[in-house]
Design brief:
The protein is built from 16 helices and five strands. By secondary structure, it is an alpha/beta fold. The chain folds into two domains: 177 residues, 3-Layer(aba) Sandwich (Rossmann fold); 125 residues, no CATH class. A five-stranded parallel beta sheet has the order 2-3-1-4-5, with helices on both faces. Helix 5 packs parallel to helix 6, helix 6 runs parallel beside helix 9 and helix 9 packs parallel to helix 14. The protein is globular and about 60 Å long.
């Protein structure tokens, strides 16, 4: 029986970096007998951009109604395409990746397993888990960047942290094992376990034969810029605006290195509340993984408020931000000019 590998995230565990890794090494993976098919976004991934993987459209078609990213209107077409990808595999394994797979309900994951089995494929799932408080803080920053969020971290995270089923790790992994089999679900801790080495090992490919991304993928926004972006988000800017800001800052290696990872936006009381809520689930997964001790090390980062972060926004930082935005705008105008010129040449 062939294997259908599903990398399912979760979110904020290096998924974008892995998807760039898979896309850039698609030919080498194919030579090893593993297809990473292009479903329309490989060029973006090869360029180091965020894509949510080659399984994003299939995963989104299976999301529950409560998820605003759901594309239920494409479900039948996506499941048919999935079956065709498997059926046309010519005896090779298949690799699909999307963090959105972690949000689909068990019945839909079972549907994927059934479609795969009908085509002679067994499901193997690759999952990365992360300390829930760190995950939620990173998710908050991502939503400020890409969803024009204006709320402060304490009120936003405090209202939603219990709602993520995939953060209840013990129960979540047990559910996956019930569908794919206990031996067919591989769990790694992010960032403790090497992202590229563990993924390659699960695929049975020597990581030394594959090219790792040298650049930072989906760089986090330095804390000092968050208060400014929160204010700008009141104007409801398009997602491309914050992407340009992050892209401009990512080009400045010092800002990326000092992106705020040494401090946390979560007050100690909220961090403790989150840890307490998920303690039993983490202990259950630690037992499943035969980990002697806690699933994640204790968080010992000092707290930084948004007011403190704003106070650290100095003249150099503002110059970096404005200068980077101007450069990004000039690049966009140059690309548009070249595209218009090329179109005009074709129409002559």
């Amino acid at each position: 029986m062939n294997t259908c590998y599903l990398h399912i995230g979760i979110f904020k565990t290096g998924s974008s970096a892995l998807q760039v890794y898979f896309a850039r090494n698609a030919e080498k993976l194919a030579a090893a007998g593993i297809r990473y098919p292009d479903t329309g976004n490989r060029k973006r991934a090869e360029a180091g951009l965020i894509t949510s993987g080659n399984g994003v459209w299939l995963a989104r078609s299976l999301l529950p109604k409560s998820n605003f990213m759901q594309r239920a209107d494409t479900r039948d077409a996506q499941l048919k395409l999935f079956a065709e990808m498997l059926g046309n595999g010519a005896g090779r394994d298949l690799l699909l990746s999307s963090e959105f797979f972690s949000d689909i309900e068990p019945a839909e994951m079972q549907r994927l397993a059934d479609v795969a089995a009908a085509q002679g494929y067994g499901l193997k799932i690759l999952l990365y888990v992360r300390d829930q408080a760190a995950y939620l803080e990173s998710l908050y920053v991502q939503h400020v960047k890409r969803r024009a969020l204006t709320a402060d971290p304490e009120s936003y995270i405090g209202a939603i942290y219990k709602d993520f089923l995939h953060l209840h790790f013990g129960t979540f992994v047990k559910g996956l094992q019930a569908i794919a089999g206990e031996d067919n679900v591989r769990v790694h801790r992010y960032p403790a376990d090497d992202l590229f080495a563990t993924a390659s090992a699960y695929l049975g490919v020597d990581p030394a034969t594959l090219e790792q991304p040298a650049e930072t993928i989906n760089a986090s926004l330095p804390h000092k810029y968050l208060p400014l972006l929160l204010r700008l988000n009141r104007l409801k800017p398009p997602q491309s605006f914050s992407d340009q800001i992050v892209g401009a800052l990512a080009a400045l290696e010092e800002d990326v290195r000092l992106s705020g990872t040494a401090r946390t936006l979560l007050p100690p009381a909220l961090t403790a509340k989150i840890a307490g809520h998920f303690a039993a689930e983490n202990d259950a997964l630690a037992r499943q993984l035969c980990i002697d001790g806690p699933l994640f090390p204790a968080r010992e980062k000092p707290y930084i408020s948004l007011e403190e972060a704003a106070a650290s926004l100095d003249l150099d930082s503002i110059t970096n931000l404005l200068g980077g935005l101007l450069v990004e705008q000039e690049k966009r105008l140059d690309r548009m000019d070249r595209q218009i010129s090329a179109l005009a040449a074709r129409l002559r």
